[in-house]
Predict the structure of Aspartyl-tRNA synthetase.
Amino acid sequence: MTQHLYGDKPFSSSDELQSISSIRINDIRIEEINKSMEGETIRLIARASRVVKKGKLCFVRLRRNSHSIQACFLAKNDQEREMVKYIGGIPHESIVEVVGIIVMRKSKSNETVSELELEMKEIYCLSRAQKLDYELDELEDMRQSRSLHTKRYVSLRHSFMHHIFKLQSLIGRKFCEYMYSKDFTEIHTPHIVKNQSDNNISSFTFDYFGNSVELTTSSHLHQQLAIHGGLDRVFEISCAFEKHHGCTHVHLNEKTTLNFGMTIASHYHEVISVVKELLNYIIDEISEYEGLEVIAKHNSRGLEKLKKTEILELTFKEADALLIANCSENEFGGFMALREVASYFKDYTDILIIQNSAHEEVGCFEMPSSTGKGFNNFIILIRGIVVGRGCQYIHDEELLKHQVRCHAPDLVSALKYGAQPCGGCSIDLELFLMQFLQLSNVRFTSLFPRAPTIYENEQLL
């Protein structure tokens, strides 16, 4: 009867799936297995991430999501030896159905943290996988393989990549939780917009039914329209597009942003206060994520806990004075200068907010400072990298009209009907996660990264 206990079987339709096994058993997920279930017979469908055959004995490491358990089979006669031979020929990463008894492990190896294992009674291969270019379990330093950015549907199975995107999902959830707790309303804005600037060098422009339009680089315009329409506090998780021609470790042409906008009662620092509370809340929550140890194990840089004794605020003028005082050769505003400024405070905090930029390339919607120097804006640095930007928006019709770089007739029109001061912020999700985890490249945190250059033989999935 052994031949009926193993073999290749295709996935059946839902009404037939229950009859694959000859034993009446319960369908269980790996993460649901616990010591109280010892002795029970269960059925699992999972990936055979590793198969090892040693004489009459064979082991199969079963993995589903980020959870795994070891299954074993010991042949006691010639017929069962044929079953061992079959199991040993199952390609790694194939999908299998296993029926087995939950038992306590006699010895614990490094392959799995579980103290339990399955004593296999039946095994069926439901979908055979082709041989991989690399073994997922053998990748210690995740920079070793360029294939990580090509066959994402394979590399995501590695616990390192899997936990990165689980953590990214958690960040999004915590962002929404915080926003709802502060009475923000979730909105959804369009990504195709009219050209908003004379300088479209950083925008993807195209013809849209005879009109020149672009992919939005930010959702702040429609956030302002929503605020002026009476939704005092709004937020959104959305996409943003920027035409970067270079290919650095921090640039993507399509990114995910955490955005919010709000009315201001007296000063734009109200926006900064929300940012500080938000960052503290998200960081505290994700610092307890159980998969951080796995990420640290495979991260070439390790993983040091983010220091946030206090989120420090500086003005651009103060930051520039620091560079001058330390005889820096870097001109403030550049990539290296920002990293240098952050390094002065690295023993105290990893998060800086630098405000009141007077740089010529500020957004055309940003409110000039009442002092006549700089703008009511700010940037957010985590470990020396800019991960977010915010500002007070111009709410005066005449002042906005004089911003010759802007083409926002809808906003100008909205300001004619009474507009309260408002501001907002946008945080790059991928960069935030990269800096939190101390990863070497933002592509690790983008599920299907879009960049101007792609790796050799890489497909745009």
